[in-house]
Amino acid sequence: MSENRKPGRKPDQTIDKAPLWLSLFFLALLLIGIAIDEPGRVLEQARQICLSCIGVG
Predict the structure, then answer these.
(1) Looking at residue 17, what DSSP letter applies?
(2) What mean pLDDT do residues 35-50 have?
(3) How far does CA 20 lie from the centroid of its chain?
(4) Is 15 helix (H, G, I), strand (E, B) or coil?
């Protein structure tokens, strides 16, 4: 048995890289959204909607 081979994997089996790239892409989008203070904007809009629903704002 070769030392480089992991147990449970066939030698001709390849790793699908699409899920890794998609995860990295969405992580980058998440970090960009946090960097431009998107969560603060969403919470401010939610607060305005709640206050207008109950008739205070």
Answers:
(1) -
(2) 93
(3) 12
(4) coil
Residues with Cβ < 8 Å from 52, sequence gap 6 or more? none
Distance (Å) of CA 30 to CA 7, 26, 33, 42, 56: 35, 6, 5, 14, 33
pLDDT band for position 7 (50/70/90)?
low
Token reading at 33: 């959204």
**H/E run at residue 32:** helix 18-35
Residue 27's region, left for phi above 0, alpha for psi from -120 to 50, else beta, is alpha
Model confidence at 23: pLDDT above 90: yes
